[in-house]
């Protein structure tokens, strides 16, 4: 076999070099014969002797040299094999089915298996299934890389396909035609220490927070003047001690504002404790009738310290806009909410309403035209508020239009009051396309009863109007209308109609509104407060009194909302079929497909379910136009807003809703129950 092996390359040239020298001597011999015959014959004898020795050595040494080369190659291969087996990097070979066929010592140490382990790689790493390995296709993946965790360590596993086709093509015993055999090399890179180091760096990064006292002035009103400083001192001590326990810095900026600097790791600990400072502060009591509540805003993961500070400002604005008594964490990717279980206290002063009313007047008088819109599928509060803004614009001598694309049955009687009245122009109510055509640089857009752009009557209109005003009473969520000229969002207000009624009184001295307009706005307050039984305060009744003085008639309003017999039966059916879930939650289905507004019936049924003793929250699901609508209601013990936000919706602490697409009614109930279960287990509600 060794004799059949042929040499090539530099080693062949080296062995045959003496023969090449003999050929050179032959050439010299020819030249020597031409010069001197006797010298040439003498040299010829030497050349014959040289070739005899050279050829004998060549044929004798060639097998010896080949044997030495083969021995060296064998020893070198063994050295390579030992080096590969003792390599510190965990390394293994798999067959094309993913089964382990060879491992080195480092790999065996990692998996705690002896030499000769021959099971599938999936048995070691369940996440590495066969379809994730490099495949045999010509245009398939030759390499793959995955992160995995094994026995507490974190690895990066790299898989590389090693084709055996070329070897098969040069083999004397394998038919290479159609052969696509391959092996898979596996390398494990332990990045546990790297991840720990990166996590440590991340944990030590700066987090900026802001803490505001929600009801500073209101809480002090019920305390004797000589004891007020003691109350503030106790609150300062509570806040500073809490922040210091997490190795943070707390600096008081104003009488009711604090700046907090902490490490990111400390924020994670606060999240685990669900910001129990929110509840701790409420325990401060020296005889004050009203418990002090705070709002916390935290900025994380910004590119700069300034960006974290800006995030914290946005977060505290969100916390206050959602009613206070909660913590909000804002990062570049997400916004997280904690707390928000208590109802915000109504502000007795109307200073803010007066300031906003004067600002609104300046904005409207500076424009030629006013467009007013509410949310999609408008209700009485949304339409009533648009009517109130329409009256303000008319009083200030500006052309105004109400954007209303679809008149729902719930507001049809109210819309007819204006369509059939000669005192109103035909273009008082216009559609989306007309509104977009009318929008311009001298147009102000007033959005009422909604601060979420995606559910406004015409979201495109927000892009066409440079001046946008938002008036809303819903708690703000992650999605808000940005770049507003004026924003007046008060979650404590019972309804948008209440807010607009107050603004009306400050916009123009001795303003007069018509009875139709007063009826619409009074209807909005009545519907959103469930006949003045939910979320009503002193200012709610003052707004209602103002509307009554301007011609609102309770009897006319009641007639506007009388129900059809089929609607009443559908509501009664939803109430009768309610399921009591976990003792305190009523869940029902409103099957009113044949009715024009089944979602309104569902909302009314949810209100009725709260009349059942022991029920803390009610949920009524309605299948309408291919979507599942969920109306959620509560009295005071459960915050249904955060439940609905978890499911993609929003609203108030005790009035909220959400929409679900691509699911059936039974599946939606399952999602609702799982959400309630999860939030109960985590003490979020």
Describe this entry's structure for a reader.
Helix content is 44%, strand content 20%. α2 packs antiparallel against α3, α13 packs across α18 and α19 runs antiparallel to α20. The chain has 25 helices and 23 strands. The mean pLDDT is 85. A hairpin with a 2-residue loop joins β20 and β21. It has 685 residues and is an alpha/beta fold. The chain starts with 9 loop residues before the first helix and ends with a helix.
Name the features.
685 residues; alpha/beta; 6-stranded mixed sheet; 6-stranded parallel sheet; 23 strands; elongated
Give unreliable regions as ranges: none
Class based on secondary structure composition and strand pairing: alpha/beta
Average predicted local confidence, pLDDT: 85
Count of individual helical segments:
25
Q: How many strands, which pairing sense, and closed or not: the largest β-sheet?
A: 6 strands, mixed
Strand line-up across the major sheet = 7-8-6-9-10-11
Strand proportion, as a percent range, falls in 15-25%
Per DSSP E runs of 2 or more residues, the count of β-strands stands at 23
The radius of gyration is: 42 Å
The rough form would be described as elongated
Proportion of helical residues: 40-55%
Distance from first to last alpha carbon: 84 Å
